[in-house]
Recover the amino acids of this structure.
């Protein structure tokens, strides 16, 4: 069975009102284990909405998203949160770090929900910081980091709980070319770690990369 | 869910945002400070009165004639000793000396450790005497034309009991109060079995219909009445202040939380559930209130027992008794009462704002 | 003069009122959820109900925590009232001073039991991916809500009817006649207590939830009588001092709170598996082991005072 199965997915805002807006229309998509998928589309095409449904950030108006055979769209909040915490690492366009906390404190945040021992915590933390290559800045406040460093911190946080799915929303939009290329290197690392990666982007830097398994284009809420 | 790591993380976030909580901390601390100070003062006064009462017999009797107090004598003691259950009857001497120069009465009480030429006065009295140039000794004027000079041997702290009191030995007291050798102001009746106090208190008026009989539990209840209603009215007025504070707090919390939406959305996106966010906010507010509670408690103790409660004392004592010191007390029940009175409604008032914050749309994080 | 000016009563009623207001808010939401809940619906209204569900859970959990504190506080406030009520030496006089006192106390314990059961059902509900017990737990809450409203009314009635001039009976009068059911003697009751205790443990061992339920209810009443008329006298070390409240006071190191606490917590774990089963048809018999644990502590504590007295004095009272 596919890792992620998306069936007849609709997301409609203000349904039944004059301002009704169909962000997603009848999306069907299967993603296999270890696959790296790039979702391409202009801004407003619905690719971010699709990612947010895959991460159980919001609930679909119709249809469903199955992850490992479980319908995550109908999960009550506690289970949806647990799913996000354990199975999904999300990388945001604006990094979404908590200002005022250090790199280390930001990265450890997803781990505080489970009662793991200090040594377990430390080893997971160290591992994630190393993978994202941000170990040397771990005690620095995230406000003082450069754009590239912020993203690596965000990546470390996404990886810290060893999720099987990595979702990235416009990961290179706030980065210069050099750092964008570094991100592509990190994608290769994800591939080696056999993670499912879905990147929503309109950046051409992702075009024609040989290690990408699939490109999906989306426009006006529909897969083309 | 409530594990050590989660607690640590909550504290880290709290420390990062301590400025946001400063307002609640200070106002809430002030509210606790006032209520604690008032209760400490009234409890301390009550405790002093009760301690003084414990030094007396189980029943106090006074004689009256035509509605005025009238001295007792040895015959009375002998008759009372006949009552079964009475172990001992002790004649006591006290009364008031009219210090005409300042138009005030001093209470004269007996301390038999003193000799015939000395006396002990309270700080309040000492101050008055000093104003009239009596720094080392004082002359009691005893009609028709006698003068009795006593050295001021010691000046003691004024408490609610002793602030207006001059202590002398019994012989001197009788001279000042112009009482005969076998006259007594009141009698202390010692009743060892507490079950019999009530019964004996009923028997005495049958023997001496003029007697005023005051069993200790009745005096105690009188003190309780006097102070419970002062405390109660204060608490009721205070609820109004509390309610306005909580309305203020709710608005303040809502506006602070408004600016935290993004942060909460980030936490939600990495797996914090609505329940976790509510717990997080609950823990943080609990720490803030408990911090404010203990800070305020320490300040109140210092204010009342070190600085003798300037301003507030006047509510209880009036302007006259300036030198009264409060005897320190520690009453766990009162502290628990204050805790429940303040912390519980505080936490209750943040439940709904915390929930509002927690249900914020997670996709907010993506904007 | 009024009892409502006693500061602990002012605080007690104020907090009860705060809790009542929070519960009214919850009940409004609960009624909406009960009416419109449809787990399979995918509209935003259903999702908003799901979110409101968490507010109600939070408020009720808070209510339970505060109610437990307030229950202890209530008993303590009764002690505070004793100097105001002529003749009362301990809470017995105050609680027995009008017809509302004793029912109110029993009623409060009953509400706490129900809230505890609600808590467990809530936990099971949140642990299920489809919130299968949601409607049942909110029907139960509605019952509890009505009970809490009645409780508040009873409290007002109780406090306003405390006589401040007519003397009441103190414990030495109320419990002097052995007012035991079915003409039993004190010793009979103690034997019945130990027998019931052993039967309950056996029933718990075989996980017979309905039998444990009945035994625990019987045990609670029998334990009340045995503590008041037998074990209590050993705590006071006085054969004629029979009172279920005096040992709550400082003179006896507050041991009463532990005695009654272990009994009530124990009985709660004994009766809740059956209640849970009858409400949501789910076996939750693992609570019975806590029943065994707490009842054993309770029995050991009570027996301790008897044995201690026997060792020190060589005789029984």
């Amino acid at each position: 069975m596919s890792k992620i199965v998306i069936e007849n997915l609709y997301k409609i805002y203000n349904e039944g009102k004059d301002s009704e807006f169909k962000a997603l229309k009848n999306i069907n998509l299967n993603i296999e284990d270890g696959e790296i998928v790039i979702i391409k589309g202009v801004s407003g095409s619905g690719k971010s909405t699709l990612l947010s449904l895959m991460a159980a950030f919001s609930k679909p108006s119709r249809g469903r998203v199955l992850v490992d055979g479980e319908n995550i769209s109908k999960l009550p909040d506690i289970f949806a949160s647990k799913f996000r915490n354990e199975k999904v690492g999300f990388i945001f366009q604006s990094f979404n770090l908590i200002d005022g906390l250090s790199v280390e404190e930001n990265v450890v945040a997803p781990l505080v929900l489970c009662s793991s021992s200090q040594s377990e915590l430390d080893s997971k933390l160290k591992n994630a910081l190393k993978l994202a290559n941000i170990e040397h800045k771990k005690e620095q406040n995230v406000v003082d980091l450069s754009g590239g460093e912020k993203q690596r911190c965000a990546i470390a946080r996404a990886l810290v709980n060893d999720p099987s799915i990595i979702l990235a929303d416009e990961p290179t939009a706030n980065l210069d070319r050099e750092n964008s290329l570094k991100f592509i290197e990190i994608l290769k690392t994800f591939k080696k770690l056999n993670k499912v990666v879905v990147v929503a982007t309109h950046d051409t830097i992702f075009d024609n990369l040989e290690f990408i398994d699939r490109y999906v284009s989306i426009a006006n809420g529909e897969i083309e | 869910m409530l594990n050590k790591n989660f607690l640590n993380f909550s504290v880290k976030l709290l420390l990062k945002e301590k400025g946001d909580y400063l307002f609640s901390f200070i106002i809430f601390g002030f509210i606790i400070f006032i209520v604690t100070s008032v209760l400490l003062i009234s409890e301390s006064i009550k405790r002093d009165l009760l301690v003084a009462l414990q030094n007396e017999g189980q029943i106090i009797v006074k004689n009256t004639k035509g509605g005025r107090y009238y001295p007792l004598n040895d015959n009375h003691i002998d008759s009372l000793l006949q009552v079964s259950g009475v172990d001992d009857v002790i004649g006591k001497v006290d009364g008031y000396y009219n210090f005409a120069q300042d138009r005030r009465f001093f209470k004269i009480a007996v301390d038999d450790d003193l000799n015939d030429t000395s006396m002990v006065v309270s700080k309040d009295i000492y101050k008055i005497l000093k104003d009239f140039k009596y720094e080392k000794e004082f002359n009691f004027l005893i009609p028709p034309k006698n003068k009795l000079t006593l050295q001021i041997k010691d000046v003691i702290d004024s408490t609610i009991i002793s602030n207006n009191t001059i202590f002398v030995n019994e012989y001197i007291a009788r001279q000042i109060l112009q009482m005969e050798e076998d006259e007594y102001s009141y009698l202390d009746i010692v009743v060892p079995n507490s079950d019999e106090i009530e019964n004996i208190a009923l028997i005495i008026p049958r023997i001496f219909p003029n007697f005023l009989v005051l069993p200790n539990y009745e005096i105690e209840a009188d003190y309780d009445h006097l102070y419970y209603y002062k405390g109660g009215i204060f608490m009721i007025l205070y609820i109004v202040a509390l309610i306005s504070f909580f309305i203020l707090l709710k608005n303040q919390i809502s506006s602070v939380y408004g600016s935290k939406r993004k942060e909460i959305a980030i936490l939600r996106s990495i797996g914090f559930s609505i329940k976790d966010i509510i717990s997080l906010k609950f823990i943080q507010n609990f720490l803030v209130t408990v911090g404010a509670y203990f800070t305020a408690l320490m300040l109140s103790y210092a204010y009342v027992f070190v600085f003798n409660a300037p301003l507030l004392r006047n509510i209880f004592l009036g302007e006259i008794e300036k030198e009264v010191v409060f005897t320190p007390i520690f009453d766990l029940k009162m502290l628990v009462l204050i805790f429940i009175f303040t912390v519980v409604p505080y936490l209750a008032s943040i439940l709904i704002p915390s929930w509002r914050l927690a249900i914020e749309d997670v996709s907010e994080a993506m904007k | 003069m009024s009892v409502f000016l006693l500061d602990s009563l002012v605080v007690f009623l104020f907090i009860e009122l705060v809790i009542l207001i929070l519960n009214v808010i919850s009940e409004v939401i609960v009624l909406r959820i009960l009416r419109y809940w449809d787990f399979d619906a995918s509209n935003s209204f259903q999702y908003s109900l799901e979110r409101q569900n968490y507010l109600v859970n939070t408020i009720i959990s808070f209510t339970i925590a505060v109610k437990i504190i307030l229950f202890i506080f209530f008993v303590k406030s009764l002690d505070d009232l004793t100097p105001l009520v002529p003749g009362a030496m301990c809470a017995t006089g105050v609680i027995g001073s009008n017809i509302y006192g004793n029912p109110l106390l029993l009623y409060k314990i009953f509400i706490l039991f129900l809230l505890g059961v609600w808590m467990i059902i809530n936990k099971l509900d949140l642990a299920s991916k489809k919130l299968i017990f949601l409607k049942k737990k909110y029907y139960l809450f509605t019952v509890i809500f009505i009970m809490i409203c009645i409780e508040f009314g009873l409290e007002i009635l109780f406090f306003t009817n405390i006589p401040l001039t007519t003397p009441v009976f103190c414990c030495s009068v109320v419990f002097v006649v052995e007012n035991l059911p079915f003409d039993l003697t004190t010793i009979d009751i103690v034997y019945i207590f130990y027998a019931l205790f052993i039967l309950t443990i056996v029933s718990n061992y075989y996980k017979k939830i309905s039998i444990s339920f009945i035994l625990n209810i019987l045990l609670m009443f029998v334990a009340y009588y045995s503590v008041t008329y037998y074990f209590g006298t050993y705590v006071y070390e006085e054969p004629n001092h029979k009172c279920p409240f005096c040992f709550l006071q400082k003179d006896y190191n507050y041991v009463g709170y532990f005695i009654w606490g272990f009994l009530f917590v124990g009985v709660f774990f004994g009766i809740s598996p059956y209640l849970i089963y009858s409400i949501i048809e789910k076996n939750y018999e693992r609570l019975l082991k806590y029943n065994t644990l707490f009842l054993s502590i309770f029995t050991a504590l009570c027996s301790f005072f008897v044995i201690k007295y026997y060792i020190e004095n060589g005789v029984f009272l």
Q: What stands out?
A: Residues 216-258 of chain B form the longest helix (43 residues). The first strand of chain B starts at residue 59 and ends at 65. Chain B touches chain C at residues 39, 217, 220-221, 224-225, 228-229, 231-236, 239, 274-275, 278, 333, 336-337, 340-341, 344-345, 347-348, 351-352, 354-355, 358-359 (CB under 8 Å). Residues 207 and 335 of chain B are 47 Å apart (CA to CA).
